[in-house]
């Protein structure tokens, strides 16, 4: 009961102080400043209104673009389908990461593999005889050409 009493006293004191401060501010504020404050509050309302109109127009245009892009597709169904595809893909990738794939006998003959690589990883090249420059047959008589 004591706490409720002091809460009531605090509320009454707050109301009294706010009224006294507003009275002092109104008494010592020039009339033009009060009028400017009214204009500023009106400007805030106009900005809120413009923002709500912009948001409504944005949502409408987004709906038009989505309809033009997707047609009459139900977005919830499309999202569920994409989510299930992603989950399935993630599951397949996760299960494949733990495996060690056996090397196939034709691993060196597949595209992207160096077929004659030595155990040290060097790629063998044709030796060029001394005094002869290595030439690319597609260069023609110009030597190295950028055309």
Summarize it.
This protein has 147 residues and is mostly helical. It has a domain at 37-95.
Provide structural commentary.
With 147 residues, the chain is mainly alpha-helical. It has a domain at 37-95. 61% of the residues lie in helices and 0% in strands. It is built from 3 helices and no strands. It has helices spanning 2-28, 31-70, 75-97. The chain is elongated, with a radius of gyration of 40 Å. The relative contact order is 0.03.
Keyword list:
mainly alpha, 3 helices, 61% helix
Present the secondary structure layout.
Blueprint: H1 2-28, H2 31-70, H3 75-97
Low-confidence stretches: none
State the helicity in percent bands. 55-70%
Major sheet: size, sense and barrel closure? none
Number of helices: 3
Distance between the termini: 97 Å
């Amino acid at each position: 009961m004591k706490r409720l009493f002091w809460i009531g006293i605090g509320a009454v004191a707050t109301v009294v102080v706010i009224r006294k401060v507003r009275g002092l501010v109104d008494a010592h504020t020039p009339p033009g400043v009060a009028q400017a404050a009214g204009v500023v509050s009106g400007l805030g309302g106009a900005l809120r209104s413009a923002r709500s109109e912009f948001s409504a127009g944005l949502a409408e245009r987004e709906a038009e673009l989505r309809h033009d892009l997707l047609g009459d597709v139900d977005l919830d169904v499309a999202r569920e389908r994409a989510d299930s595809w992603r989950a399935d893909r993630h599951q397949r990738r996760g299960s494949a990461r733990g495996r060690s794939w056996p090397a196939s006998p034709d691993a060196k003959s597949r595209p992207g593999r160096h077929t004659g690589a030595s155990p040290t990883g060097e790629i063998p090249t044709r030796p060029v005889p001394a005094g002869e420059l290595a030439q690319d047959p597609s260069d023609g008589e110009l030597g190295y050409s950028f055309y």
